[in-house]
Amino acid sequence: MNQNLQTLSVESSDMNNPFKLTDEKLIARFQDGDINAYNELVHRYKDRLLNFVFGYFKNREQAEDVVQDTMIKLYTHASYYKPIAKFSTWIYTIAKNNALTELRKNKRKQTVSLWTNEGKPIDIEMKDELLEQTVYNKMAVEELNKYLDEIPENFRIAVVLRDFQELSYEEISKILEIPLGTIKSRINRGRIQLSEKMKHFKEQ
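Above: the chain's sequence. Below: its structure in token form.
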């Protein structure tokens, strides 16, 4: 399945001030039949989900297929969403489950690099001034990807969701179905490992 992520989108006029609508208001409008609301949700989440899902694979085409499946499920299962949860938590959980299903089909998990849209530098939320300076001033995306590859998957996924996708600890806990304390521990340990590896980059 290698088709455009907006295959299901229907050309029509833009919604009134769509950027002012929350995700929850958009999904409510789509549940009422507004296709433009679906299009806006796809626009907001397709790249973010690709960054996230790519953390499970070493193959971009597989990651794109998973995101495509996620957007199809958003289209066909929109009625399943209930406002008791944030939309972002719901859609990330669908993407995660789709990714795990694909991994089971492959019968093995793979480690990956983090792909970033347009090759822009990545902002990592850390107090370590060395890491912040390295990311902004010296670290090419490809180098950061290499270091992320070397971090265990459970740490890498948690760091990606927190520092790259900017989700709250509570959202990450719900998405990964892991206790909050464990999530915080994984993020901290992942940040430490990434920081240590990037120190070697500065010394080069």
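Confidence is low (pLDDT under 50) at residues 6-15, 107-130, 132-139.
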